[in-house]
Amino acid sequence: MRSGRAEVAVDTMLVIGAHVGAIWLVYTYILGRWIEAASLRVAMAIPVVQFTAILLLLVASLMTKIVRARNLARAGRVDPEIREALAMHGAGEDRSEALAKLRRAHAERTGLCLIEALASVRGQGHERLARLAVELGYVRRWERQLRSRNRPRRRAAVTALGELIRVAGSKAIVKALSHPDEDVQLEAARVLVRDRRSEDLAQVFAFALEKPLLARVVLGGELAIHAFTLIGEAIPAALHSPETRRVLAALELLRSWDRFLPVPAVAGLCKHAEPEVRAAAVRQLRFALLPDEASPLALAALLDPDPRVRVAGAFTAGKLHAVEALPGLASRLEDEAAEVRIAAAFALGELGPRGWQTLENAAYSGSPGSAAALEALARARIGLLSTTGA
Amino acid sequence: MRELLLSAFGLVEGSIIAYVALSNLSYFILMAVGFFALRRFNAHLSREEKEAILMSPAAPGISVLAPAYNEALSIVASVNAQLRLRYPSHEVIVINDGSKDDTLKILIDEFHLYRSARTPEGTIETKAIRGIYESRDPVALVVVDKENGGKADSLNAGINVARMPLVAAVDSDSLLEPESLMHIAKPFLEDPEATLAVGGLIRVVNGCEVDRGVVTRVAAPSSFIARVQVLEYLRAFLGGRLAFSFLNCLLLISGAFGLFRRDALLAAGGFDHGTVGEDMEVVVRMQRLWTERGLRSRVLFVAEPVCWTEAPESWKSLQRQRNRWQRGTVETLGKHRKMFLNPRYGMVGMFGLPYFFFFEMVGPVIEVAGYVCTIGGLATGLLNWQVALLFFLASIVFGMMLTAGALVLEEFTTRRYASPMDLVRLLGCALIESFGYRQMMSFWRAKGVLDGLRGKKGWGKMERLGFQPKATK
Fold first, then answer.
1. I need a surface site. Which of A149, A378, B90, B160 has the fewest CB within 10 A?
2. Could you give the CA distance from residue A354 to residue B176 in angstroms, rounded to a whole number?
3. Which residues in chain A (195-254) have CB-CB distances under 8 A to chain B?
4. Hey, which residues does B360 pair with through a beta bridge?
5. A378 touches chain B (CB under 8 A)
């Protein structure tokens, strides 16, 4: 299958080619009889072809609507029978013959009802239906659908094959991880993760690390189920990777889980050469280490040369309610970077009365941090403290 | 002598016809590219993906910037709608640009605002800020009250005050669909390093039913002037923005709804308040800066996030708007002429800018010249009817077909006008648009080019009807 850009280029060329061909036909065989001047003939042929194309498109649109309406009507007639047969088959009664007949008569509807049933049934019923799908040849059908030109159909095929993993294996889905369509890749990854088996987990995790942030955002929730498995080996290995991108990707995943998971390797990353990595690691400290291990590292981050790391340090100190960070945060109110001053002020706002006292002292001092201190105080008083942008 | 005149006239007319035909042909090709790109790349987020994004702390925060000037009628509805947008982390920053009505007072009363100590962190110069307000209620709303400085100046003030990594520039009377931020932020999740800005689809709200800031029923407008603008927007987005986005040479993100990287805007110096085409100029400037820094960049258009906006219903307002758009194009092209046909600037320099120059800027002037030459030539006998017919076919008929084609292609893509009667009305409009409206538009745009070259400034005034719930007939 072609890549997306190649697909668009080829389709465009085909349309242009078809138009040119049609214009030539009209020019030569239709208008040639009535118009002598070549330029006029071309100029007439173009709108004739376009008008015809528009008419055809309108007809196609109308036909699509009619077909859709008919399919809906057919679904209304046929689906209850299919669903009943599937329900009985899932419950233990052998309806494979009847379903084979229905499959021959209404392959598409039977397939769709089967996918619905597989998605809603678990346990032995699911297994019976999955075997039925294999027997009725739907595995091959859905594997062929992976090469369809219709994007929703490709995605649906992945989802459908995902329901058959335990019976038909995951080979097709694993292969779909390198499909030219990124949507299919992502859906394949989600299907593999949801299967809850660990065999393919390493591949999905590697996929999530290689792909853009979107993949990690979408897969983050699904991978959370396997968090404890991943923090055993896969995540520490990624955090120790010499590639900064992989390290950052692993930290993004950890962050997306938003819960405590002991990952001691995060501590070492607070001294990483790249400031982006240091900042991400410092933000993760409160989820990766115990408070008395995390606080000193957050405090040390307040002195980092990079403002992003200092912001992360202030944010984490605030979230940890690290009272020992008071002097460090107070000094950050005079930081040269405005975002550090704001982060420090908001962090002080989370440290209770002593933090607020520090803010009050700073608020009326006329220093660069006064405005940030005033803002944090107001928010703390209203009880709406949040560290925006952090 | 007459023979010489005849040949010269024929040559001029022939050149104009060839130009117009080429212009329409290029539009046709771009429409084909845009259509297939939309079908291939317009990834509709599934329900699970939307939920994953909504719950993810990794999704970048967005500051929604809404400049407001004398918006007392609609500001509360607009702000409420913007606060209700579905996105994990966003704040709404309304910039009251020295309104002479009660816009600020209405906001203070409605949202229980207090004067905050929040200070602008950005470094773009703007008119003086009189105060920054935040809400006592648990809503992420900030109101910046400033001296009047225009839309670009207001946006810059908003950029300075914003704290999220992305800023969405919207018109205060734009109606965003509830999930529009999610869709428009998606490209930033796909390539956070290279993506500088993303534009969303703008649709005409005239004729639609609106309830509490949400479009509840889509319908074609009843007036011809609004209907024809629906067609223009469709043509521009399907045939222009999508294709340019695919080719990575998009020059323009609509001021009604665009999402930008805040750091990129700050690095580029924000919106230029010295131009009336600030939305186009800033996009070109950001791409120029990133190229000169040797960094990868992309500016995209995505058709999924929809912003509804009110189209002018009076001819005078429409004329002022189109004049301003054309002046903006002239100013931007002039300001960045160094990039023109310069391979250093990639597709933007080699295709985007030349296309805009040859077809968007010069096009209306040549088309008007074509009408004048054709009518004058026929009247004086310097032109025969076949040549006149050729011009008619190349400009009017071909253009008519392109518009009808764009409308029909919309049926296969975004398909917002569900009612067949709406499609019929719009098709009818597509056919009659070319007899009178198109010529008038070419003339206005040509005047806009001349005004731009003469250095005319100013925005003019648009009369707003406001969004009112409409009863169905």
1. A149
2. 43
3. 212-214, 216-222, 252
4. none
5. yes
Tallying the residues shown for chain B, one arrives at 473
Tell which residue, B116, A349, A368, A367, has the closest CA to residue A359: A349
Terminal-residue alpha carbon distance, chain A = 42
Residue A99: count of CB within 10 angstroms of its CB: 23
Question: Which tokens sit at B211?
Answer: 């309830």
Choose from B24, B118, B407 for mutation: most chain A CBs within 10 A.
B118
Chain B nearest CA to A12, separation (Å): 6
- Listed in sequence order, the residues at least 6 apart from A343 whose beta carbon sits closer than 8 Å to its beta carbon are A310, A311, A314, A315, A318, A332, A387, A390
- Give yes or no for a contact between B97 and B150, defined as CB atoms under 8 angstroms apart: yes
Tokens 């009943």 found at = A84
Average pLDDT over residues B422-426: 84
Top pLDDT among B459 and B221 is at B221
Across the interface, whether the CB atoms of B58 and A218 are under 8 A apart is answered no
Who contacts B452 (Cβ-Cβ below 8 Å, separation ≥6)? B326, B327, B328, B329, B330, B331, B334
Cα(A207)–Cα(A220) distance, integer angstroms? 12
CB nearest to A212's CB, from B51, B121, B190: B190
Q: How far apart are CA B389 and CA B435, in angstroms?
A: 14
The Cα angle at residue A330 between residues A326 and A333, in degrees rounded to 5: 145
CA atoms of A12 and B246, how far apart (whole Å): 12
| Cα–Cα distance list, B240 to A98, A306, B26, B215, B395 (Å) | 53, 42, 10, 25, 18
CA distances from B244 to A318, B188, B329, B356, B411 (A): 46, 18, 16, 11, 21
Tokens for A34, please give them. 């009535």
Q: Which amino acid is at B444?
A: W
pLDDT tens string, chain A, 390 residues long: the values are 567 788 889 999 999 999 899 999 999 888 888 788 788 888 888 888 888 888 888 888 888 888 888 888 888 889 999 999 999 999 999 999 999 999 999 898 999 999 999 989 888 999 999 999 999 999 999 999 988 888 888 888 998 998 888 888 888 888 898 888 888 898 899 888 888 766 788 889 999 999 999 999 989 888 988 899 899 889 999 999 999 999 999 999 999 888 899 999 999 999 999 999 999 999 999 999 999 999 999 999 999 999 999 999 999 999 999 999 999 999 999 999 999 999 999 999 999 899 999 999 999 888 889 999 999 998 888 875 544 444
What is the identity of the amino acid at B55? Answer: M
Chain A: residue nearest B50 by CA?
Answer: A218
Say if strands B195-204 and B298-309 run parallel, antiparallel, or are unpaired: parallel
CA-to-CA dists, residue B164 to B90, B140, B262, angstroms:
8, 12, 8
Q: What is the ipTM of this complex?
A: 0.85
What is the per-residue pLDDT across B243-299, written as a single tens digit (0 to 9) for each?
A: 999 999 999 999 889 999 999 999 999 999 888 888 999 999 999 999 999 999 999
- What token pair was written down for B34? 């845009």
Quote the tokens at residue A126: 């699911």
CB nearest to B52's CB, from A57, A217, A384: A217
Say whether A12 and B29 touch across the interface (CB within 8 A): yes
Convert A312-347 to b/e letters by CB count within 10 Å (16 or more is b).
Answer: bbbbbbbbbebeebbebbbebbebeebbbbbbbbbb
d(C-alpha A76, C-alpha A93), whole Å: 24
Contact B405 A53 (CB under 8 A): yes
B382 vs B431: CA distance, rounded Å: 30
Comparing CA positions, the residue from B162, B191, B57, B137 lying closest to residue A315 is B57
